Please model this.
Amino acid sequence: MASPKGLPGLVALDALPVPEDPVLALGRELWAEPCMNCHNGNRYTGAPKITATEAWAPRIAKGLPQLLVHATEGFVGPKFTEMPARGGNPDLTDRQVAAALAFMVWASGGAEDALAYVQSTDFPRD
Model:
């Protein structure tokens, strides 16, 4: 599934595996809205494509707690691409955002990091 450039074409939810971990499985469902809008491989958004290990590796190296800050508070990248706070959905809780983020990392070459994060005390428990 994960590869340097990711799955071919635009990635839809049904193309992604269902993780055994319940938090990651929840993250998969949450990915469908709003994360999929930008992280499905639409190159015009500037968002890293889910399953693209090459694009995700430097992000994963920053650690999931730092990525969660970017996902919850918003972030403007070095090429002036924007990650809107909570994916543009202010109703998502920290736990929901973290689950979706962990799923994207899991599906994009960071399975061990994602599993360790959802089992850690740093994972939001709201």
Remarks:
- Helices lie at 22-39, 53-60, 64-73, 94-107, 111-118.
- The domain at 20-118 is CATH 1.10.760.10 (Cytochrome Bc1 Complex; Chain D, domain 2).
- The longest helix spans residues 22-39.
- The CA atoms of residues 63 and 103 lie 14 Å apart.
